[in-house]
Amino acid sequence: MSLTRMYGLFLRHFYLITRSFPRVLDLVYWPTIQITLWGFISNFFATHTTYYNNAVGVILTCAILYDFLFRTSIGFNMLFLEEIWSRNFTNLFIAPMKIGEILTSLVATALIRALIGLIPAVLLTSPLFGISILDLGIFLFFLFLSLYLFGITLGILVSAGLLRYGPSFENIAWSTMFLLAPFGCIYYPIEILPEVFQKIAYLLPLVYIFEEARNILINQTVDIQNIYYAFMWNGVYFVLSIVLFYYSFNVAKNKGTLINMGE
Amino acid sequence: MKNLVEVKNIKKNYGKNEAVKGISFNIKEDEILGLLGPNGSGKTTTIGMLLGLLKPTSGEILINGQKLEGNRIEILEQINFISPYIELPKKLTVKQNLTVYGKLYKINNINERIEFLSEKLRLEDLLNSITGELSSGQKNRVSLAKALINEPKVLLLDEPTASLDPEVGDFVRSFLEDYKKEKKISILLASHNMNEVTRLCKSILMMKDGIIIDEGNPKELINKHGRKNLEEVFLKLSRSKNELN
Q1: Distance between CA A189 and CA A209 in Å, rounded?
Q2: Closest CA to B159 of B235, B83, B214
Q3: Is residue B180 scored above 80 in pLDDT?
Q4: Which residues of chain B does A93 touch, with a Cβ-Cβ cutoff of 8 Å?
Q5: What is the Cα A242 distance to its own chain's centre?
Q6: Which long-range contacts (CB under 8 A, 24 or more apart) does A248-251 make?
Q7: A111 or A51: which leads in pLDDT
């Protein structure tokens, strides 16, 4: 056993980590996010044991909704990452495609990918658990649309990061959804969050979407305002993500990231 | 002959590092221009700027009379690129890859074009093969087919025969010579294979440290520098920093 050789291999990975901010961030936030998310969930169930008594399946419904969001966002990122992994990225960006065309085709493909994953999950919940997500009625469409918009917005933001920082941004691509999960109030109402976190959560469309899903299932009422706020914030973030993507493309053209992306 | 590529005093800085320090050159139709230089001389940066992947810090590039700046899409329709450092999606078949790129370049008769290119590049038996399972030589010919799918007026080649065996290398060179002659296209060839450059190029640019340090046709350069072949000229110019200064 050679300590020098082992130290050499350690250095190989240590250098990689210290040269990339996204990699350092990746090491730090996974444990933080997991502890925060499950801390809030545990806290909620410890103090509100009867909250879900009259609405069996609320958690499962929220899990399906969250998974749709997750699949849409990761699906978009995967499409972008596939081009980097296969070293096809340069071919794509020297083809006469407008940025808008690239984004639109990825957005549509991400939807198809998400639906392929969603449909079996929806169909399985009924025979296995006696629960149907269709209980959300016509408003299910608006909730899904809102989640889809937010999913592709996150995808576009991550892709902008990949353009700007290169493949080292890949780890962020995998974890954006987990980063936002505690603020999304997927499995618990917003009141369970500390006040500072509530202020952040109200700036995200997720909290309105999941609050409304629980509201429909538990109270059998519809609060249009939640749906409106979800779409409003989605619109804001979607426009921001597009602007950021174009900005990142220009930065990449100046810095040379596009030409080195596959290497 | 008309200039299909006009490069006017382009510079590219990465922060304080000047990768390309103001170079100018033209490529005529039916011409192959060799771009030579040691690693880090600015060749890849120059190709990146010609492809619109890099924005020049200053200067101007015209392709077929059109400025690249502001006409990126129109110009990309007329050019294409091949490099051993970029690949086609490995899990798609050859035909699927060529069809995808045929669509991206909005080719009208994709099947006819694929048929034509597969015949010319000996790909008929490979069309249904998985691209990632092909040999280096086969992948190279597929990449060349992709690069010609849009019938480019300008073809940029970065080490087009790197890692190929002599037979496939010779086939690719002969193909490029014939194709250029037939279609009257302009080709920029960046290569470290001096025999290849001597065979294919009527004129050469020699780059070093971001500038063009010499240019001319291979024979002229060999005579001018009193060397036996282009490789010796390359070595002399690459190692000549102190002498030049």
Answers
A1: 11
A2: B83
A3: yes
A4: 53
A5: 16
A6: A248/A160, A248/A161, A248/A163, A248/A164, A249/A99, A249/A163, A250/B55, A251/A163, A251/A164
A7: A111
Q: Helices marked H in chain B — which ranges?
A: 43-50, 72-76, 94-104, 110-120, 136-148, 166-183, 194-200, 218-224, 230-238, 241-244
Check CB contact of B55 with chain A, cutoff 8 Å: yes
Contact B131/B97 with Cβ under 8 angstroms? yes
**Predicted local confidence at residue B5, as pLDDT:** 96
Packing angle of the helix pair B136-148, B110-120 (nearest 10 deg): 140
| pLDDT beyond 60 at B190 | yes
CA-based nearest residue to B117, from B134, B131, B102, B100: B102
Rounded distance between C-alpha atoms, residue A109 and residue B11, angstroms: 39
Does some domain include residue A8?
Answer: no
Domain limits for position A87: 21-260
Pairing mode, strands B203-208 and B31-36:
parallel
- Kindly indicate the confidence band of residue B244, based on its pLDDT and cuts at 50, 70 and 90: very low
pLDDT digits (tens, 9 = 90+) for B202-212: 999 999 999 99
- Tokens 């006469």 sit on residue: A96
Could you give the CA distance from residue A121 to residue A114 in angstroms, rounded to a whole number? 11
Give the tokens for residue A237. Answer: 């973030």
pLDDT at A28: 67
A156: in domain: yes
Which has the closest alpha carbon to B231: B244, B214, B218? B218
ipTM: 0.89
Question: Into how many domains does chain A fold?
Answer: 1
Does residue A5 belong to any structural domain of this protein? no
- b/e for A151-188, b at 16 or more Cβ within 10 A? bbbbbbbbbbbbbbbbbbbbbbbebbbebbbbbbbbbb
CA dihedral over A224, A229, A230, A234, signed as positive or negative = positive
Contact map slice: A 76-105 vs B, CB within 8 A: 82, 86-98
pTM across the whole model: 0.83
Amino acid identity for residue B196 in this structure: E
- CA–CA dist B213, B238 (Å, integer): 10
By CA distance, what is B82's nearest residue in A? A91
* Mean pLDDT estimate for chain A: 82
Domains, in order of start, for chain B: 3-78+152-244 (3.40.50.300), 87-151 (no CATH)
User: CA of A175, closest CA in chain B: separation in Å?
Assistant: 25
Residues of chain A positioned with their CB less than 8 A from the CB of B55: 250, 253-254
Q: Which residue has the higher pLDDT, A34 or A136?
A: A136
Q: Is residue A230 part of a domain?
A: yes
CB pairs under 8 A between A and B: 74
To which residue do tokens 């940025």 refer? A99
